Amino acid sequence: RQEPETHALEFAVERGFGALTVAGPEGVLAAHIPFLVEDGLVAAHLVRSNPLVRHLGGGPAAALLIVTGPDGYISPDWYGEDDRVPTWNYLAVHLRGELRLIDEARLRAHLDRLAANFEARLAPKPPWKADKMTPDALARLLRQIVPVEMTIEAVDSTFKLNQNRAASARLGAA
Asked: Count of H helices and E strands in the chain?
């Protein structure tokens, strides 16, 4: 079922990881990426050698970021109801928009925000920060990735969790 856009976007933000896809000249291109959502934009980075980077060198492209959550097979035996078939329960959000390369001068700030976001989830662990690395090692790693951003133009979602079943059937599946 379609969730309200704000709920679907909150799920994507909380998950922070997805499959970024673009239709390229030789077929669909994809990369699995961590990301942030900031001011209506997806902020991420790609390995410089990724075919997506070469494709974006020709300019912005329409993209789809697929964010999935928990999923699982549901046996009809669990419903406690007759005449049911197997199904799959899952959560999925699709963010659509225009993907583009951005100024590499913004890369370090992006990485710092990305690390801060995910490190905060590990509290009370002291957060890791890029300044723990030697400047040479950090510079070497930064040369291997490029920053990208996608303007979010549409948010679609499916949160299929047996909502159409009676409470007892949902409990049985759980």
From this structure: 5, 7
- SS3 category, 26: coil
Q: What is the pLDDT of residue 2?
A: 64
Percent of the chain whose predicted confidence (pLDDT) is above 90: 82
Q: Provide the token pair at 81.
A: 């109801």
Question: φ and ψ at 117, to 5 degrees?
Answer: -60, -50
Residues 6+ apart with CB under 8 A from 88: 71, 72, 73, 74, 160
In the predicted structure, residue 16 carries a pLDDT above the cut 80: yes
Q: Are 67 and 15 in contact (CB under 8 A)?
A: yes
Q: Residue 3: is its pLDDT beyond 80? A: no
